[in-house]
Specification:
Number of strands: 13
Radius of gyration: 19 Å
Bound molecules: nicotinamide-adenine-dinucleotide, uridine-5'-diphosphate
Shape: globular
Structural class: alpha/beta
CATH class of the domain at 3-172 and 214-240 and 279-293: Alpha Beta
Distance between the termini: 40 Å
CATH superfamily of the domain at 3-172 and 214-240 and 279-293: NAD(P)-binding Rossmann-like Domain
Largest sheet: 7 strands, parallel
CATH topology of the domain at 3-172 and 214-240 and 279-293: Rossmann fold
Order of helices and strands: EHEEEHHEHEEHEEEHEEHEHH
Helix content: 25-40%
Length: 312
C-alpha cells in the first residue's frame, strides 16, 4: 500500500484521482484550501479509513511521510486564476518549491500537473513537447502560464541537482463530472446554459479550437506516467485527446445532446485567447502505451447527466 499525497485533491481532477488511487488500494491524503475545490467532490470518500482530508495551502510548507505526491493544487479556469493573479503565481511557484522540498526530504516520487498553456498561443500545430511555446509574459493569462512554466523549471532542476524522481504531464483541456457549475470553463458553461435554456455564450466568432479530453482518460494517463519505472523518463509528456473542435462546433453539439432551446450569442474574445490547440500524443503512446478512449459525444453525455443532477 502506497501513501500518496494529492494536492488540489478536492478539485475537479483531484477528486477523480483520489477516488481511483483509493480504489487501486492506496492510502490517500487530499490536501486543499478549497479555493475552487469543494468537499462535495470527495464527501463520498470520507468514510474510507484510508482517506484523509487536510485543509492546507500549498504556498505554506507541509510535512507528511509519503511515497508519492501528485501536485495538482492551482485554479485552472481563466476566470478563477485571474481573480487573484499574484496568488496564482505563488500557488504554482511556492507550491512547487514546497512540494519538491517535501519530496526531497522523504524521498517521494512527485508528479506535476502542467498544462498545454505552456505553449501559449501556439504557432506550431499540433503541439509536440519539443515546442517552446508562444506565451505573452505580461498578459492576463501569464500568472497561470508563466507560473506553470517556472514550476516545470523547478521540477527539472530538483531532478538534475537533487535527483528527486519527477514526472511532468502537460494536460490539455479536460472536462467531466465534478466541474463546478460556475467554473467558467467552456464545457461546464455551455452545458449549464443549455440545461437552463439560457443563451450559449460563444466568445469571439467561435472559430478558435480546443481538443477536449474526458477526465477518466486523463486520470489513466497520469497514473500510468507516475507508475512508469524508467527514472530517466521525466516528461514533460502531453496528455490530451487529439480530437480537435471549434468552440462553435462544441456549442452546437451541446445544444443537440441536451435538446435545448438555447440560442448562441457572441461575446468579445478575451485577450490572448489561444486560437488553436491540439496535442501531439506520439510520446505518450510510445512511452506509456496510453491513448484516450472516450469520444467527445460519450464524454459530454456523462457530463450532461452529472450537471442535470446537481443543478436541479
Ligand atoms: P480545479 O480548480 O477544479 O482544482 C484545483 C484545486 O486546487 C481546487 O480544489 C483548489 O481549491 C485547489 N487549490 C488552489 N489553490 C490552492 C492552494 N494555494 N493550496 C491548496 N489547494 C489549492 O481545477 P482542475 O481542472 O481540477 O485542475 C487541477 C490541476 O490540473 C491544476 O493544477 C491545473 O492547472 C491542471 N490542469 C487542468 C486542466 C483542465 O483542463 N482541467 C488542463 C491543464 C492543467
Ligand atoms: N469560451 C467560450 N464561452 C465560454 C467560455 C469559454 O466561448 O463561456 C471559449 C474561450 O474563449 C476559449 C475556449 O472557449 O477560446 C476554451 O476556454 P476555457 O476557459 O474552457 O479554457 P482555455 O481557454 O484555458 O483553454
Amino acid at each position: 500500500m502506497k501513501r500518496i499525497l494529492v494536492t488540489g485533491g478536492a478539485g475537479f481532477i483531484g477528486s477523480h484521482l483520489c477516488e481511483k488511487l483509493l480504489n487501486d488500494g492506496n492510502d490517500v491524503i487530499a490536501l486543499d484550501n478549497f479555493f475552487t475545490g469543494s468537499k462535495k467532490n470527495i464527501v463520498h470518500l470520507l468514510d474510507n479509513h484510508f482517506f484523509e482530508l487536510v485543509r492546507h495551502d500549498v504556498t505554506m510548507p507541509y510535512f507528511a511521510e509519503i511515497d508519492e505526491i501528485y501536485n495538482l493544487a492551482c485554479p485552472a479556469s481563466p476566470v478563477h486564476y485571474q481573480y487573484n493573479p499574484i496568488k496564482t503565481v505563488k500557488t504554482s511557484v511556492l507550491g512547487a518549491i514546497n512540494m519538491l522540498g517535501l519530496a526531497k526530504r522523504v524521498n517521494a516520487k512527485i508528479f506535476q500537473a502542467s498544462t498545454s498553456e505552456v505553449y501559449g498561443d501556439p504557432e506550431i500545430h499540433p503541439q509536440p513537447e519539443s515546442y517552446w511555446g508562444n506565451v505573452n509574459p505580461l498578459g492576463p493569462r501569464s500568472c497561470y502560464d508563466e507560473g506553470k512554466r517556472v514550476a516545470e523549471t523547478l521540477f527539472m532542476n530538483y531532478n538534475f541537482q537533487n535527483k528527486v524522481r519527477i514526472k511532468i504531464a502537460r494536460i490539455f483541456n479536460t472536462y467531466g463530472p465534478n466541474m463546478h457549475p460556475n467554473d467558467g470553463r467552456v464545457v461546464s458553461n455551455f452545458i449549464v446554459q443549455a440545461l437552463q435554456n439560457k443563451d450559449i455564450t460563444v466568445y469571439g466568432d467561435g472559430s478558435q479550437t480546443r481538443s477536449f479530453q474526458y477526465v477518466d482518460d486523463l486520470v489513466a494517463g497520469i497514473i500510468s506516467l507516475m507508475n512508469n519505472t524508467d527514472e530517466d523518463f521525466t516528461g514533460p509528456v502531453n496528455i490530451g485527446n487529439p480530437g480537435e473542435f471549434t468552440i462553435l462546433e462544441l456549442a452546437e453539439k451541446v445544444i443537440k445532446l441536451t435538446n435545448s432551446k438555447s440560442k448562441i450569442i457572441y461575446m468579445p474574445l478575451p485577450q490572448d485567447d489561444p486560437m488553436q490547440r491540439k496535442p501531439d500524443i506520439t510520446l505518450a503512446k510510445e512511452k506509456l502505451n496510453w491513448e484516450p478512449k472516450v469520444n467527445l459525444e460519450d464524454g459530454l453525455m456523462k457530463t450532461i447527466e452529472y450537471f442535470d443532477r446537481i443543478i436541479k
